[in-house]
Design goal:
Layout: H1 7-17, H2 28-41, H3 46-54, H4 57-60, H5 77-89, H6 91-110, H7 112-117, H8 120-128, H9 135-142, H10 147-159, H11 174-182, H12 195-200, E1 227-234, E2 237-243, E3 248-252, H13 253-258, E4 287-289, H14 290-295, H15 297-310, E5 312-316, H16 324-329, E6 343-346, E7 362-365, E8 377-385, E9 387-389, E10 392-396, H17 397-407, H18 409-417, E11 420-425, E12 430-435, E13 438-440, E14 446-449, H19 463-480, E15 486-489, E16 496-500, E17 504-508, E18 511-513, E19 519-526, H20 528-545
Parallel strand pairs: 4-5
Antiparallel strand pairs: 1-2, 2-3, 5-16, 6-19, 7-17, 8-16, 8-19, 9-18, 10-15, 10-17, 11-12, 13-14
């Protein structure tokens, strides 16, 4: 793989390959972000923060390993990483990267117990990296001018392997990295913002209403031939004066950095999610009880962020009363009414209009793919469950899509590029939508999954394309059915499951009702925009409360 030669290529490499694992619970990108966060929290220099962020770049520029991550071997990634970083960010960044493996060997040499504290993957590579230092190697390392920085980086490297820890985003470090690359604070023109873009995003009160933050002008009202006449940097502010109208705009440098191409986006794609297999999850992390959730804003924020990041949460001890699922929705969003009404009953019916209203097993699927737009969130509240069977299951559809892309890229392109028809009908309704099974954004990042074999209609493709589509469809279904992807659990009375219907596929095992009762759930739909809004408002309240 071609090594990056510029800052932008370095960020693009991490955005393209940072999702890969290398024997740890975290991905390469998550590991780097956790390292950088630790370095920043301990007051490290900008160069050492950048070294912490990119210290494993040597892994990313190799083709070692399989489709799901890197093989547990060492390809002298420290030296390779230093060679990549030195011409881009300079020796202050490259040197601790070059020495961070030697620092591990040194610590294992002086403290044999340290080896036992390493992760299994790090223990495995220790021998391949040369094992303990001999006397000469130890003396040479201890006298090296980069000794202290390498030990600091090693400490963060060994600590930064916490699954699910939120540490911000890669582009949060862009200004810092660009300053290291240029040796000085970059003016806006170095951040690739043209004059027209800057003028169109001016935050002054003449250009934006201070109450609604909405623009007060039309694009046609801006003067033609706009250019930047002058730039001043004052602390965190970038002051821009334009020609020919002499308008003055004041921007926050952090805000400008956040608008860089390839940034976070709308938070809806795989880039901003924690993809998971069943075995990756902490059994208690995505759970809370209803009283605590209602009375503690911090707990509510934790649960809602978990839904946004992992795709689901379960609330225990939710009152088992009719319509309670609607009240749960109203704690973070708005009910999405459908032909089923505000809520729907999930129980065995004598004449079911949907297989969900039987005791049959339901394979992993997303709901309502025949709607456009599809309901983006779903809730299921258990009122009673006195049956044999009926366990619930969840599969991370974004992970399944990523696996398909890594293992069978041609199949991924087929499913992402071919619209298919989904439909559902009864006596009073005929619902139909034509969309791809895998939805991607303009940068190719997975943004949604519609997978429901029960409502998928006959393919309307050219004869020569049908076989290729079925090959891709079958392959994706087989990935979704992999046992390690399915999280199973039983919903008991009072449990309310909340999940992202654009990402998670839900399932149910078959069940048989007993003579003393059955299985009764109430369901409801809502949308992700309400969830995101509530999270943003709670964050804003927290920032005011704890400035």
């Amino acid at each position: 793989m071609k090594a990056p030669a510029t800052v932008e290529e370095l960020f693009a490499l991490y955005e393209a390959r940072g999702h890969l694992h290398y024997g740890e619970l975290v991905t390469g990108l998550e590991h780097g972000l956790q390292c950088a966060a630790l370095a920043r929290a301990q007051g490290a220099t900008d160069a050492l923060i950048a070294a912490a962020l990119f210290h494993d770049v040597g892994w990313l520029v190799t083709d070692v390993g399989g489709d799901e991550g890197f093989a547990p071997i060492d390809d002298d990634h420290a030296a390779l990483g230093a060679r990549v970083l030195s011409p881009i960010l300079g020796p202050a960044v490259a040197q601790p990267v070059a020495l961070h493996v030697t620092a591990k060997r040194w610590r294992c040499t002086i403290d044999p117990d340290y080896f036992d504290e390493l992760s299994p993957a790090s223990q495995e590579t220790f021998i391949l990296q040369g094992g303990s230092l001999n006397h000469e190697e130890r003396a040479r390392f201890e006298s090296h001018p980069g000794f202290e920085a390498a030990l600091a980086l090693r400490s963060w490297d060994d600590t930064a392997k916490t699954f699910g820890l939120e540490t911000g985003h890669l582009r949060d470090y862009e200004v810092l990295v660009r300053e290291l690359a240029t040796g000085s604070a970059p003016p806006p023109r170095d951040l690739a913002f043209p004059a027209l873009w800057l003028r169109d995003n001016c935050p002054c009160e003449c250009c934006r209403d201070p109450r609604s933050d909405q623009k007060l002008f039309q694009i046609t009202e801006l003067p033609e031939g706009l250019s930047v006449a002058d730039v001043q940097l004052t602390g965190d502010q970038v002051i821009v004066r334009f020609s020919p109208d002499d308008h003055r705009s004041v921007f926050s440098r952090d805000w400008l950095a956040a608008q860089s191409p390839g940034g976070r986006g709308d938070g809806r794609t795989e880039q901003d999610k924690q993809l998971w297999r069943a075995g990756d999850l902490d059994p208690d992390a995505q759970r809370s009880d209803w009283p605590t959730y209602c009375n503690d804003d911090d707990e509510r924020l934790r649960i809602l962020r978990g839904i946004e990041r992992f795709g689901f949460a379960i609330l225990h001890d939710t009152p088992t009363v009719d319509g309670m699922v609607v009240e749960v929705v109203r704690t973070f969003g708005f009910v999405r009414s459908t032909n089923y009404g505000e809520l729907f009953e999930v129980r065995v019916e004598a004449n079911p209009s949907n297989l969900a209203f039987t005791g049959l097993a339901i394979s992993p699927h997303t709901d309502n793919p025949y709607r456009d737009p599809v309901p983006t969130m779903q809730l299921l509240h258990c009122l009673s469950s006195n049956v044999d069977g009926g366990e619930s299951g969840l599969v991370d559809g974004f992970l399944a899509s990523a696996i398909l892309r890594d293992e069978y890229p041609k199949y991924f392109d087929v499913l992402a590029g071919t619209p298919v028809t989904f439909a559902w009908t009864d006596e009073h309704n005929y619902l139909r939508a034509q969309r791809p099974i895998i939805e991607v954004d303009p940068r190719g990042r997975v943004r949604g999954v519609r997978f429901n074999n029960r409502s998928m209609q006959a393919l309307q493709l050219d004869f020569d394309n049908v076989a290729a589509y079925y090959d891709a469809y079958r392959c994706f279904a087989e990935i979704i059915a992999r046992p390690d992807l399915l999280l199973t659990f039983r919903l008991e009375p009072g449990d309310c499951l909340i999940f992202d219907n654009t990402r998670l596929l839900h399932a149910r095992s078959a069940f048989v009702e007993s003579s003393t009762g059955g299985r009764h759930l109430q369901g409801c739909y809502t949308d992700l925009d309400g969830l995101s809004s509530t999270i943003a408002v709670l964050d804003r309240v927290n920032s005011v409360r704890n400035p």
